[in-house]
Amino acid sequence: MCRVLKFHCGRLALFALLAMPTAAAAQVGKARPAASATASQTRVSIEIFTGKEGVGLRAQRWGQLFEKLKVPFTIRPERAGDKLETTESSTGKSLRQVHVVGRIDDRGRLVVSDRTFAESDLAKIDDWLKDLRSYGAQGAPAGQPMWGLSKTQFGEVHRALSEPLKASLAGQPIDKALSLLTPSAGYSLQYSPSAARVLNPSGDQMNLRQNPQGLSKGTALAIVLNDLRLGFRPRRNPSGDLDLLVLALSESVDVWPIGWPPPQGGPAVAPKLYQFVQVELDDQELPDVLDAVAESTGIPILVDHAGLAARRIDLSSLKVSHPAKRTTWLQVLKRITSPAGTKLELYVDDLGKPFLWLTPIKSLNPGPGE
After folding, report:
1. C-alpha to C-alpha distance for 280 and 323, rounded to whole angstroms
2. Which of 174, 209, 222, 218 is nearest to 365 (CA)?
3. 177 three-state secondary structure
4. Are 4 and 281 in contact (CB under 8 A)?
């Protein structure tokens, strides 16, 4: 081992880089295709209340429209306490009941809890009803915030993905690593056709590029998949069950983020990065310096290998220098990484643990807020 950093605390030991490929290569196991959940039988009913005009001509026309669509409906005057809502209940194991309460506004439009329809919107109304029959009261997840999950569902998924990765991924084949990264709460990994092709490359050997041990499983999974230009996101199936869908970043970048912005600011979550130390670098290899700083501060430094490769940035070929100076680790890192066209972002994982993410100025998989 050699010394690459000089400061008043004395010699800083260097350790093997987590970002280097593993020595053992193994063939990827067979990836399962995305599951197609079968929704239970769903019945939709509509209850419409009216304003001052009562059950007038406009309300009657809406009744005729829903009769044409063969949807049970009720039209009545407004009562105290009425509110717009879409609720769901189950009868036995196979029948799901979705009940929509809407109102007719002063322009004759139908207003429900999350949208408004005109009488001429017959096709849109038909699509909306199909979504309710397929996905229940929450409707189709596409285009909704938080991937169409309710706040309760998102909280449950986030808690599951906050489970710490205790096992080391070093030397593990990709299929074994993915099994270790799957949360124990029962959210299975499913794969889009494009992701399955990446993970089953006709016998090619695949190595993990880095070992995010100690981070949350959600963040660790996002980092491991990003190296393969893949990502994942929670998916709500028509049955209401949730799983984790792995897909290619070319399909969508709307994936679980690689870390979250520190809620209390950098100095609060990673104070050692902001402490002043005496530093001197003399033509040292950049990966060795990154590893040494991570060891000194206790802040992991993970690498966007896919983004670097896309921009032909080879960290192993870069050497850096820094004049003898008393400064902070964060300033040192910014100074030695920016000339290579890279940047370091401070994030926290799903548990709130800080880490640094080394990525090109413009990444393939942007972090939050980019």
Report:
1. 5
2. 222
3. helix
4. yes
CA distances from 6 to 17, 91, 330 (A): 19, 70, 16
Q: Which of 5-14, 60-69, 149-158, 222-231 shows the lowest per-residue confidence on average (mean pLDDT)?
A: 5-14
- Residue count (the chain): 370
If you ran DSSP here, which 8-state letter would residue 216 be given?
B
CA distance from start to end of the chain: 38
Residues forming beta bridges with residue 99, ordered by sequence position:
45, 87
Dump pLDDT digits (tens) for 265-309: 889 999 999 999 998 888 889 999 999 999 999 999 999 999 998
Question: What does the radius of gyration of the chain's CA atoms come to, in whole angstroms?
Answer: 27
Least confident span in 39-43, 345-349, 363-367: 363-367
Three-state DSSP class for residue 89? strand
Q: What is the DSSP letter of 93?
A: T
Whether 193 contacts 45, CB under 8 Å:
no
Residue 86 tokens read as 């879409």
d(C-alpha 155, C-alpha 242), whole Å: 12
Burial classification of residue 232, based on how many CB atoms lie within 10 Å of its CB (0-12 exposed, 13-18 middle, 19 or more buried): buried
Tell me the C-alpha distance between 179 and 302, whole Å: 21
Task: Evaluate whether 245 touches 269 at the Cβ level (below 8 Å).
Answer: no
Domain ranges of the chain: 26-37+147-248, 41-140, 266-360
Q: State pTM to two decimals.
A: 0.68
How many angstroms separate the Cα of 238 from the Cα of each of 96, 148, 232, 243?
11, 12, 19, 12
CATH number for the domain running over 266-360:
3.55.50.60
DSSP secondary structure letters along 42-69: EEEEEEEEE-TT-S-HHHHHHHHHHHHT
Phi, psi of 95 (to 5 degrees): -110, 125
Q: How many CB atoms lie within 10 A of CB 326?
A: 10
Amino acid 54: pLDDT: 58
What is the reported pLDDT for 148? Answer: 78
